[in-house]
Specification:
23 helices, two-stranded antiparallel sheet, globular, about 550 residues
């Protein structure tokens, strides 16, 4: 009989222990596991092909829908508005900012460089703060500061003020991505996680796609309104949208299963959150000290994750597409902003499709390699450059088919390293720090603005980095399997490697199919027992 034991409580007060046996779990949480023999109809089974919660028993489904409606909706909005702002810097540059502020050459890249510096300085320290403070407090406070700073860009009369603002915007934004990735990995299970991670990254592609439409709309309808240029209005709108999202964060962010205090989950649902994640073998949150942080660097994990992750981050070239379009001298400002939206639409579709397939396979690395291939192939064509016009158009779009890499590798890390919640948060924090440290200077050398749109060696470099990221994925596979063997771990019913002492099965189903399968087994056993009884009587 398995026993579940998780530390439940906040970080600062003395925590209490939550302990259940298998029988107690099935008795207390039976309403989630089997709601009076519930079976989904064919329509719900069809919907479940796209979103897993639709085929769950009613109470279980309601629980997941509440998680999605609060957690995913807030995270999606938060990342959407941040990506929108970052994309708008590029769009604003080609929509009047360059002329209004008399910008030259490399200043467009420097706007991103100072943002990266702020992001670098804030990424790792923010993870220590999240371990001490509740994410439900810290993240919304950062959102407030971020919104104010973004609106201030609209008042800039020179590049110097934008440098200062972009630095502090990066500082405020640095905490968001690692914290959200860690929280998603703490609330969702293997058959659910990649799709949710993909929605988070999908927000980035959606924001990038919408940015072109919004910029085109603002440029057309608001340019000159109240004496303010269209590109300035875009930053004002960003900041105004950001403020309500801050307030939503105080309500929606659930912290972690063992520390949550949100009002939209009942106490039974909070305890069920602990049970269903502990059954995976996942460990609860613990105190993060400097000594523990330094120990992360004595293990292969942080290097195995960041090899492909960092290369994914720095091998992007799609932001240079609009510079090529502008160089053709055949498109209007609105068209230059709108055409790249097609690539972001492709990213949205492939991001969800890859996540759905990987959730069904319960394997992440095959779809990662597919994504890496398209990124490599697109950059290879751009490195050749002298290719037919239509093929060059397609070459800019191909890397967007490889967009799902972030969602898949973060999901993979959440599953492979589920024994350490703080490590999961620190992985992307360290990875982003390294990525942005490189991105602060690499574009200045590889993609100097005066060379646009044909860069001498930029696309050649990105092609090589894409190839190396594929090798990094294979290295991750090898090291994960090696660790599994060396630690003597076993694979549970979810396909996750756990210590033998952590192997549990409390009957929490992945889907209704699990319940049907269990009932069929019970029916077969009952039929066998009847046959034995009849045989004995006959004798």
């Amino acid at each position: 009989m398995g026993v579940i034991s998780w530390i439940k409580g906040s970080f600062n007060p003395v925590p209490r222990e939550l302990t259940y046996t298998k029988d107690e779990v099935q008795e207390k949480f039976s309403v989630f596991l089997d709601d009076e023999g519930y079976r989904p109809n064919s329509f719900r089974r069809f919907l479940a092909q796209f979103w897993d919660s639709f085929e769950k028993p009613p109470r279980y489904r309601w629980y997941l829908h509440k998680l999605d409606a609060n957690v995913m909706f807030y995270f999606l909005l938060s990342f959407f508005i941040k990506t929108l702002d970052n994309t708008n810097i590029s769009n604003a540059y080609v929509s009047g900012m360059k002329e209004d502020l008399s910008l030259n050459g490399q200043q467009r890249n420097l706007f991103n460089t100072v943002f990266y510096i702020g992001y670098i300085l804030g990424s790792v320290p923010s993870q220590f703060l999240i371990n001490k403070l509740r994410p439900s407090v810290w993240l919304p406070c950062c959102e407030v500061a971020w919104s104010v700073l973004v609106m201030c860009i609209a008042a800039a009369q020179s590049a110097k003020l934008i440098y200062v603002l972009r630095f502090f915007i990066g500082l405020c934004e640095s905490t968001t991505y690692p914290a959200i990735a860690m929280m998603l990995g703490s609330w969702y299970r293997p058959d659910e996680l990649a799709k949710r991670m993909s929605v988070y990254d999908l927000a980035s592609a959606l924001a990038s796609m919408c940015s072109g439409f919004i910029q085109a709309g603002v440029y057309t309808s608001m340019d000159g309104l109240c004496g303010i240029a269209g590109w300035r209005w875009l930053f004002i709108v960003d900041g105004i949208i950001g403020m309500p999202i801050c307030l939503l964060g105080f309500y929606s962010i659930p912290d972690f299963p063992n520390t949550t205090r949100v009002v939209w989950l009942s106490q039974l649902e909070k305890d069920f959150s602990v049970v269903r994640m502990a059954e995976l073998g996942q460990k609860s949150t613990r105190k993060l000290t400097l000594g523990r942080f330094l120990k992360f660097f004595k293990n292969w994990r942080i290097y195995g994750f960041n090899w492909p992750y960092v290369l994914f981050n720095i091998a992007g070239t799609y932001s240079y597409f609009n510079l090529w379009l502008k160089s053709l001298n055949k498109y209007s400002v609105q068209q230059i902003n709108l055409i790249p939206s097609a690539g972001y639409g492709m990213a949205i579709f492939t991001c969800y499709l890859s996540a759905n397939i990987s959730d069904r396979m319960r394997l992440r690395w095959p779809m990662l390699l597919v994504a890496v291939f398209f990124n490599f192939f697109g950059n290879l064509l751009l490195a050749i450059w002298d290719i037919p016009f239509g093929l060059k158009y397609a070459a800019f779009f191909f890397p967007e088919i490889g967009y799902p890499v972030w969602a898949l590798i973060l999901t993979w890390a959440s599953e492979a390293f589920q024994d350490d919640a703080e490590l999961r948060g620190m992985l992307s924090a360290v990875g982003n720090t390294i990525s942005y440290a490189i991105s602060a200077w690499l574009p200045l050398l590889a993609f100097p603005t005066p060379q646009a749109p044909h860069y001498v060696w930029g696309y050649h470099l990105m092609c090589g980095l894409s190839f190396l990221s594929g090798l990094g994925v294979l290295f991750f596979v090898i090291m994960e399997n090696r660790e599994k063997r060396m630690m003597g771990r076993v694979v549970n019913k979810y396909g996750l490697a756990v210590d033998p002492d952590d192997l549990m099965d409390f009957g929490v189903p992945d889907s209704v199919e699990d319940l049907v399968r269990a009932e069929k087994v019970a029916e077969v056993e009952a039929e066998k027992a009847k046959r034995v009884e009849v045989s004995i009587r006959a004798v």
